[in-house]
Amino acid sequence: MPSARRAAALTEAGRLAEQLGCAVLVLCSKHSDAAKAAARLSLRPGFDIIAVDFPDTRIARLPALETSTILGESKLKRRTDTSAKRNLGLVLARVLGWKRVVFLDDDIEVPDATDLERAVALLDSRDGVGLHITGFPDNSVVCHANRETGAAQDTFIGGGALAVPADRIDSFFPEIYNEDWFFLLGKTMLRPVGQVGVARQQPYDPYASPDRARREEFGDVLAEGLFALFDEGGKIGDADVGYWTRFLAARLALITEIKGRVREKAPAGKAAPMLESLTASSGRLLIIEPEQCFAYIQAWQRDRERWRAYMAGLSPIRATAYGKSAIEVAADRFGFEPITRPALDSPRSAPARAVRQGVRAAVG
Questions:
Q1: How far is 176 from 157, CA to CA, in rounded Å?
Q2: Distance from C-alpha of 226 to C-alpha of 78, rounded to nearest angstrom
Q3: Nearest Cα to 183, choosing from 54, 84, 294?
Q4: pLDDT value at position 293?
Q5: Would strands 24-28 and 2-3 be described as parallel, antiparallel, or unpaired?
Q6: pLDDT tens figures, 81-92
Q7: Distance between CA 87 and CA 166 in Å, rounded?
Q8: DSSP E strand stretches across the chain
Q9: What is the number of H-type helices and E-type strands within the chain?
Q10: Which phi and psi (to 5°) does residue 196 adopt?
Q11: For residues 128 and 185, is the Cβ–Cβ distance under 8 A?
Q12: CA atoms within 13 A on the CB side of 126
């Protein structure tokens, strides 16, 4: 779990882990604290806990990614650590020998825990299986406004509740909005994915601050642009500067159309914040150049090769003769201090049972 909220937000993860007998890895920052997270999860028995205060600096010995620096300090840069947490989760799963993991955000509920088992059971033939997000839709600000003004608006599987084959997946999460969509893409198009089960997103106000719309716009442009290209029968390599020129114009026309519908159809009291957020989106859109879109996709493709080579070089860590567990060895290697319960290498630990019984570990 990439956790940024207070420890109470981990209640659902603890419930699921207790029912499934799987480990929980929680990576903490902002309002989340590893010691408090471990204490909260420890209220329930029967599963292993690894809680880590995520470092402010780049994780030692992870590959430097071009997509993390190509935007410099521009307004298009995303300033959250969600992607970095998920990438560390992938690496730790690989070195700890976990075969199947589930990414679960701390604002997601899974009413039926067996839906997670159903998801991981499909991973022999798929690179990602997401739960269907019900409750509050999992969309960007622009897509929320599109739906709320009467247009058809789909959702897609995402990192909020996503099972992946940790022992063979070679993808990564770039530091951009819609990073989970990019994770599920291959060299030319979407990887084999699936959807099963139900998760519930806690509601929030997408229009509470126009900054949300600004932060989302570059990643929303790139992801929506690529998926629109797939719908046309194209592949990632077809997204040249000319394509992005056309898509940026189409995106601006869409936002303008939505703003018109807001003025006509938005409920009383809601139109003003919706329009403010949409204006923020279109304002950010106007500083995005087609060349930037093309350059970012090229950098992301190079990063995919870097990450693939890095993951291919990782192998499971064994407990040492000096009494250190695998997670302690990993912590030394990557430069963090874990809080655990109990030692992961105990033969009676939950991960050991999970591997024998086919129940996969939960990680975020």
A1: 17
A2: 19
A3: 84
A4: 98
A5: parallel
A6: 999 999 999 999
A7: 11
A8: 2-3, 24-28, 49-53, 101-104, 108-109, 128-135, 161-164, 193-201, 338-341, 361-363
A9: 12, 10
A10: -155, 150
A11: no
A12: 17
Q: What pLDDT was estimated at residue 320?
A: 67
Query: Nearest 5°: CA angle at 317, between 315 and 319?
Result: 160
DSSP string, 144-201: HHHHHTT--------TTEEEE-TTT------SSTTHHHHHTB-SSSBPSEEEEEEEEE
Residue type, 226: L
Q: Cα separation of 47 and 86, whole Å?
A: 21
CB atoms within 10 A of CB 348: 8
pLDDT one-digit tens code per residue, 345-362: 343 344 433 332 333 445
Predicted confidence (pLDDT) per residue in 71-119, tens digit? 999 999 998 999 999 999 999 999 999 999 999 999 999 999 999 999 9
Helix (H, G, I), strand (E, B) or coil at 213: helix
Q: Are 164 and 142 in contact (CB under 8 A)?
A: no
Structure tokens at 130: 């997401």
Q: CB neighbours of 300 closer than 8 A, spacing ≥ 6?
A: 66, 67, 174, 182
Q: What gap in Å lies between CA 6 and CA 20, rounded to an integer?
A: 23
As beta bridge partners, residue 226 has none
